[in-house]
Each structure stands twice: as structure tokens, then as C-alpha cells.
Specification:
The chain is mainly α. The chain has one domain (about 10-335). It is built from 13 helices and seven strands. The chain has helices at about 10-30, 45-50, 55-75, 90-95, 110-140, 155-160, 165-180, 200-210, 225-240, 245-255, 260-275, 280-295, 310-325; strands spanning about 85-90, 95-105, 140-145, 185, 195, 215-220, 330-335. It has a three-stranded mixed sheet with strand order 1-2-3. The chain has a two-stranded antiparallel sheet with strand order 4-6. A two-stranded antiparallel sheet has the order 5-7. α5 links the parallel β2 and β3.
Length: about 350
């Protein structure tokens, strides 16, 4: 007797997306309401919210492309997968969103397909984040997929994992590039200011646009560039080679059952980074990973078929990309930025 076909329920996806649109609009409006750009003044509520549209659109594009990178790669491998669930958050604290997740309801075929699905999201998102940050300069949490059953083999595992980061970078890199075009070099105001940490890739883009930054001055990122920065940061967090993160899946595809040792080393590195930089950010992230993500990853159904050479090279490139995208101190408040 045939089982009835279950139709996906997308009501919750829609509600969460609408809420996330609102919270990111509010967050973008707060970012834009500064003397450096355009004060909100006595403008109406709708007009004030619309000032946050460039930030909200850019950030949601990065997250959306990241997740749909996973989604379409999983569909290519005929894996049952949900539409993205966007997660709203308090606008002032966390850019209005904690990212987005999708759920894989069937196993990936092998390590190669799992790698492709995992890596596609982050890389596609980065392509949008870099231009957004760069155009605003030259003219400024996260996404997780859950596998409810084992991947088919290492290749499908790699594809699923890599699809998100690679797709996300496709959006994040252009977004960052464009955002830098509208960013400005200005004197640091008196009092506390919010400082966004500089990953190596951002340092390069800022130097190409502004050259050496004079003492007492800093680059004030346009909201679109801030969204590009957030896209970099979300991509970097997901590339940590630990547990069920995209980087954890990539690590399993690369190292097999030795991935747990890689995860333990990564966790220790986070603690060490927090001690060296004296940044609470990394202790919080390490605690979240320990209690919510863990170090375990379900092996694919076929754990014998080796990862292809091309995927192995791309996997190592993703780990190198983590170094280029992660800021030593993500966010800090200081009266002297540089």
C-alpha cells in the first residue's frame, strides 16, 4: 500500500521571513541614523524604516543565497530538504537576525555530494558580500543546515556542506564591494563607538580604497557594507570545522572519522583566541558550539568512496577562507578604534 505524499508546510517559513524582514529593517534604520550618514530627524515611521531597506535587502540576500545554495544542491542529489527558516532577533543587538536554517530530511548519497551541498551556500553568499562592502567604500548569525539522516557518501556530504558558504559568498563579496563605495573616512567622535573587527580580506579592500588610515580617523561603514561584513562573519562562523556546521561537514568529508580531533582542536583554538584577544565573543561562541552543536557528525551511508581530488582541493580552500574572513575581535565598543 502506497504511503500518502506529505505536502510541505510553508506557513512557518513565511511568518519567520516576514518577521525577519521587519527586524532587519529596524536594525538597518538604526545603523543609518547617524551624523555620518543621514539622521532620521522627524521623519515618519515608514520613512524611517525604509532607510534600513538597503541593509535589510543586502543581508537577507546573503543569507537567502547561502541557504538556497544548500537547498538546490540537496535537491540536485534528490535529498528531501526544507525551505529556509529565517530566524528573527532583536534589531539593536544582532542585526535583526540570527541567520537561517534548512533541514535535510534524507541522507546525502556520499561524501562528495554532502560536501557540495555544504560548501555551495557559504561561497555563493560571499560573492554578494564583497561587492557590497567594496562599492560603498570606493564610492562600506548564522546559517546552519541539519541533516536528519546520513549522507549518501563523502562526495555528496561535501557538496551539501560547501554549497552554502560558496553560494553565500557570491552575494556577500559584491555586497561588501558596493558598500565600501558609500563608506566614508572620518574623524573618530568622542565617546564610545561600535567597532567592527577587520578580517584580512576586509583589511585588503579598505586599503585599496582609502590607503593608510591617518591617526584619529577611521572608515565608517555604510549600512550596506555592514551587511557585507555580517555576510563575511556568518560565512566564517559556519566554516569552523566542528560538528554540524558547514565546516564540520567539510572536515568529515576531508578527514573522515578523524573529524572529531579536528573539532577538538578548533574548540581549543576558539578558547585560545578569546584569551589572546580578551574578547568575550569567542567564549560565547565556543559555549554555543559546545552545548548546541557538539563534536559528533553522522557518517554517510557510503563512508568508503574517497573524496574526489577537486573537492579535496576546494575543501582545503574553504578552510583557508575561514582565516581570511574571521575578525580577531568581531564587535567591540571603544573610544579609539585604531
Amino acid at each position: 500500500m502506497a504511503e500518502p505524499v506529505m505536502r510541505p508546510r510553508i506557513g512557518l517559513n513565511i511568518v519567520l521571513f516576514v518577521l525577519t524582514c521587519f527586524t532587519t529593517l529596524v536594525s538597518g534604520a538604526f545603523l543609518f541614523a547617524s551624523p555620518t550618514f543621514t539622521p532620521l530627524g522627524n521623519s515618519g515611521v515608514v520613512a524611517a524604516l525604509l532607510t534600513g531597506a538597503p541593509f535589510a535587502f543586502t543581508l537577507l540576500s546573503i543569507l537567502g543565497v547561502h541557504e538556497f545554495g544548500h537547498y538546490f544542491t540537496a535537491r540536485y542529489y534528490k535529498a528531501a530538504v526544507s525551505l529556509p527558516y529565517f530566524i528573527p532577533a532583536p534589531p539593536i543587538v544582532l542585526f535583526g537576525t540570527l541567520g537561517a536554517i534548512i533541514r535535510l530530511r534524507s541522507p546525502a548519497r556520499d561524501r562528495n555530494s554532502l560536501f557540495d551541498i555544504a560548501a555551495a551556500g557559504p561561497l555563493a553568499g560571499l560573492v554578494v558580500a564583497i561587492p557590497a562592502l567594496y562599492i560603498v567604500l570606493f564610492g562600506t548569525l548564522g546559517a546552519i543546515i541539519r541533516l536528519r539522516s546520513p549522507a549518501r557518501d563523502r562526495n555528496s556530504l561535501f557538496d551539501i556542506a560547501a554549497a552554502g558558504p560558496l553560494a553565500g559568498l557570491v552575494v556577500a563579496i559584491p555586497a561588501l564591494y558596493m558598500g565600501l563605495q558609500w563608506s566614508v573616512l572620518a574623524k573618530i567622535p568622542s565617546g564610545d563607538v561600535m567597532q567592527f573587527g577587520d578580517p584580512l580580506l576586509l583589511k585588503l579592500l579598505v586599503h585599496l580604497k582609502f590607503g593608510a588610515i591617518p591617526a584619529g580617523m577611521d572608515v565608517f561603514l555604510h549600512p550596506v557594507a555592514v551587511a557585507g561584513w555580517a555576510g563575511f562573519f556568518v560565512t566564517a562562523l559556519n566554516l569552523f570545522p566542528l560538528g554540524q556546521l558547514d565546516g564540520g561537514r567539510i572536515a568529515y568529508a576531508l578527514f573522515g572519522r578523524h573529524h572529531r580531533m579536528v573539532g577538538f582542536v578548533t574548540f581549543g583554538g576558539l578558547i585560545l583566541l578569546g584569551i589572546v584577544t580578551q574578547s568575550l565573543n569567542w567564549f560565547v561562541w565556543a559555549a554555543l558550539l559546545f552545548f548546541l552543536v557538539g563534536f559528533h557528525h553522522t557518517p554517510p551511508l557510503d563512508d568508503v568512496t574517497p573524496l574526489t581530488t577537486g573537492r579535496r582541493v576546494l575543501g582545503w580552500a574553504c578552510l583557508i577562507l575561514l582565516v581570511l574572513l574571521i575578525p580577531p575581535v568581531p564587535i567591540a565598543f571603544s573610544s579609539s578604534v585604531r
